[in-house]
Amino acid sequence: MIGEKIKLLRQERKMSISELAEKANVAKSYLSSIERNLQSNPSIQFIEKISFVLGVSVNELVNADANEGLEELDGEWLQIVKEAMESGVSKEQFKEYLEFNKWRNEQRN
């Protein structure tokens, strides 16, 4: 998550949470809640301020979050997704199936 990435970068730069908050001109309490994943959807303005102080691009912060877990996809999962795409299954249909499957699992419990 983005909070974990911010915390890691902050610690690598040997900065306290107070120091980062002050330099980025953001509330320490909000930064803390982001780092602890209590808040998980910070504004782009917040991300821009934090990335500037940490010396990384906005993309590095955001894409680290987006790419998390992709390395866990094995060849079989990739093949299943490829077959679904080739057979004409749309993203919307796949999302509907996932929602149905979640609902079905909840009904069983």
Automatic annotation (TrEMBL):
<feature type="domain" description="Sin">
    <location>
        <begin position="64"/>
        <end position="102"/>
    </location>
</feature>
<protein>
    <submittedName>
        <fullName>Transcriptional regulator</fullName>
    </submittedName>
</protein>
<feature type="domain" description="HTH cro/C1-type">
    <location>
        <begin position="6"/>
        <end position="61"/>
    </location>
</feature>
<dbReference type="InterPro" id="IPR010981">
    <property type="entry name" value="SinR/SinI_dimer_dom"/>
</dbReference>
<dbReference type="GO" id="GO:0003700">
    <property type="term" value="F:DNA-binding transcription factor activity"/>
</dbReference>
<dbReference type="GO" id="GO:0005829">
    <property type="term" value="C:cytosol"/>
</dbReference>
<dbReference type="InterPro" id="IPR036281">
    <property type="entry name" value="SinR/SinI_dimer_dom_sf"/>
</dbReference>
<dbReference type="Pfam" id="PF01381">
    <property type="entry name" value="HTH_3"/>
</dbReference>
<dbReference type="GO" id="GO:0046983">
    <property type="term" value="F:protein dimerization activity"/>
</dbReference>
<dbReference type="InterPro" id="IPR001387">
    <property type="entry name" value="Cro/C1-type_HTH"/>
</dbReference>
<dbReference type="InterPro" id="IPR050807">
    <property type="entry name" value="TransReg_Diox_bact_type"/>
</dbReference>
<dbReference type="Pfam" id="PF08671">
    <property type="entry name" value="SinI"/>
</dbReference>
<dbReference type="InterPro" id="IPR010982">
    <property type="entry name" value="Lambda_DNA-bd_dom_sf"/>
</dbReference>
<dbReference type="GO" id="GO:0003677">
    <property type="term" value="F:DNA binding"/>
</dbReference>
<keyword id="KW-0238">DNA-binding</keyword>
